[in-house]
């Protein structure tokens, strides 16, 4: 499975960005699609994730609730992160992440990371 993430950039506080991550590969089941972020000098943290096949089963970290929205397309080949009212503390490299069962003999469970896309929020 390959992940390609894009959409980061420089924005002023209060602005918006939309991150996209496209997944390609041979997947039997999709367990998690989501976004993590890592600010300089800090550990990588979960931002938002969609769990299982339901588009209503989401996990969003408290610090971004009400500002960030996670969604995905119907074939579940892409996941998006709409980020509104961005603040300087949101500055980080954002990574998309998937947890899948891959099509193989036998099928295999694995997780994959996309390359980081940098979000910089100026005050």
Task: Offer a concise description of the structure.
With 123 residues, this protein is mostly beta strands. The protein contains no helices and 11 strands. It has strands spanning 2-6, 9-12, 17-24, 27-38, 45-51, 58-60, 68-72, 78-83, 92-102, 108-113, 117-122.
Explain how this protein is built:
With 123 residues, the protein is an all-beta fold. It has no helices and eleven strands. The strands form two sheets. Strands 2, 4, 5, 6, 9, 10 and 11 form a seven-stranded mixed sheet that branches. Strands 1-3-8-7 form a four-stranded antiparallel sheet, with no helix packed on it. Strand 7 and strand 8 (78-83) form a beta hairpin.
Supply database-style keywords:
four-stranded antiparallel sheet, 123 residues, elongated, mainly beta, seven-stranded mixed sheet, 11 strands
Number of helices: 0
Helical proportion, percent range: under 10%
Structural class, by secondary structure, is: mainly beta
Rounded average pLDDT: 93
Unreliable stretches: none
Biggest sheet layout? 7 strands, mixed
DSSP, total strands: 11
Task: Give the overall shape, derived from the CA principal axes.
Answer: elongated
Strand content: over 45%
Oligomerization state: single chain
User: What is Rg?
Assistant: 14 Å
**End-to-end distance, in Å?**
37 Å
- The helix/strand series, from N terminus to C terminus, equals EEEEEEEEEEE
Strand and helix layout:
Blueprint lengths: L1 E5 L2 E4 L4 E8 L2 E12 L6 E7 L6 E3 L7 E5 L5 E6 L8 E11 L5 E6 L3 E6 L1
Parallel strand pairs: 2-11
Antiparallel strand pairs: 1-3, 3-8, 4-5, 4-9, 5-6, 7-8, 9-10, 9-11
């Amino acid at each position: 499975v390959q992940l390609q993430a894009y959409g980061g950039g420089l924005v002023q506080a209060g602005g918006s960005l939309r991150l996209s991550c496209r997944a390609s590969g041979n997947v039997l089941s999709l367990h998690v699609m989501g976004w993590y972020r890592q600010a300089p000098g800090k550990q990588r943290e979960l931002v938002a994730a969609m769990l299982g096949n339901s588009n209503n089963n989401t996990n969003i970290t408290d610090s971004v609730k009400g500002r960030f929205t996670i969604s995905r397309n119907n074939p579940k080949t892409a996941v998006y992160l709409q980020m509104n009212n961005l603040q300087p503390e949101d500055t980080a490299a954002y990574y998309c992440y998937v947890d899948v069962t891959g099509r193989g003999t036998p099928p295999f469970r694995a997780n994959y990371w996309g390359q980081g896309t940098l979000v910089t929020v100026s005050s």
